[in-house]
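User: Here's a structure from my thesis project, written as structure tokens. My advisor, Dr. K., wants to see whether a designed sequence matches the one we expressed. Can you design one independently, without my sequence as a hint?
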């Protein structure tokens, strides 16, 4: 296989391979793959309408994602094994959900060791839940939204549509990063910041959906996302000013206006960050995509 780094011009070809998969994981969104390509040194190869993705973790260890496409899975895994031999590495797969693990075991039983990776589990919610926020468990979310509306009667939601919208969101992103950086500077090396910046600067080319909230004539929150499968939409970025209820209202309004037709909303992983995990759990996920790492047995 010949691997190369992902560019914007590869979008159509990569998405053709991803189309029709039902794994629902955020790694199978083109915008995510492209925006994080430098962090993970992500490369891809396409053979017989099958997508192979190769990347490095924080320790520069080589990993692969589940191959996706028309090639039989056993043959695709053999292709990966040959590539690892050429790279002088071991066959390691990451981001493997329970569904993927079952499929791999059927074609290569007892070939891999499995290790759970809780920090990369992805949170899925029914879109109806995030739109309506019904029930006692989500009362606090409704309270935050009601307080926001009461304190900002001129608030409104709008889709991101123009370059000016993206530039305004980029300013909010930079302000947020500055306020949350200990030395008061923008951490250009912070990969989540860089990924969000990449998405805003290439919003149209990536064909993303975006939404924003304005109050008192100012932008106070925005979010970005895209479909993963026919029934699942993924939220990639969500940023808000330090205003009570700003996160709650952009979360609810974005789904209501841009993703109501999807059954599930994937809000990605928590990366093991305590505050992020607490925030995602506070919406009571309807499904967790449990992920793990596979290593070929010697």
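Assistant: Designed independently from the structure alone:
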């Amino acid at each position: 296989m010949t691997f190369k780094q992902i560019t914007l011009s590869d979008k159509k070809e990569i998405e053709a391979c991803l189309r029709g998969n039902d794994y629902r994981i955020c790694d199978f969104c083109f915008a995510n793959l492209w925006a994080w390509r430098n962090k993970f040194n992500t490369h891809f190869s396409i053979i017989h309408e099958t997508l192979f993705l190769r990347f490095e973790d924080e320790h520069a260890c080589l990993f692969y994602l589940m191959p996706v496409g028309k090639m039989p899975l056993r043959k695709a895994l053999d292709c990966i094994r040959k590539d690892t031999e050429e790279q002088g590495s071991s066959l390691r797969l990451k981001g493997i959900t329970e569904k993927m693990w079952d499929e791999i075991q059927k074609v290569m039983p007892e070939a891999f060791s499995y290790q759970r990776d809780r920090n990369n589990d992805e949170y899925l919610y029914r879109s109806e839940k995030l739109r309506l926020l019904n029930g006692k468990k989500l009362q606090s979310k409704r309270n935050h939204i009601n307080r926001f509306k009461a304190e900002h009667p001129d608030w409104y939601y709008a889709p991101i549509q123009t370059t000016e919208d993206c530039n305004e969101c980029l300013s909010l992103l930079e302000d947020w990063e500055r306020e949350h950086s200990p030395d008061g500077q923008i951490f250009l090396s912070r990969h989540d910041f860089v990924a969000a910046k990449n998405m805003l600067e290439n919003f149209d080319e990536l064909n993303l959906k975006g939404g924003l909230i304005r109050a008192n004539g100012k932008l106070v929150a925005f979010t970005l996302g895209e479909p993963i499968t026919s029934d699942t939409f993924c939220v990639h970025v969500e940023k808000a000013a330090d205003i009570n209820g700003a996160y709650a209202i952009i979360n609810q309004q974005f789904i209501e206006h841009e993703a109501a037709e999807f059954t599930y909303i994937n809000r990605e992983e928590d990366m093991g960050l305590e505050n992020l995990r607490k925030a995602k759990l506070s919406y009571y996920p309807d499904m967790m995509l449990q992920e793990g790492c596979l290593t070929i047995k010697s």
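When you compare it with your expressed construct, this may help: The chain has twelve helices and 15 strands.
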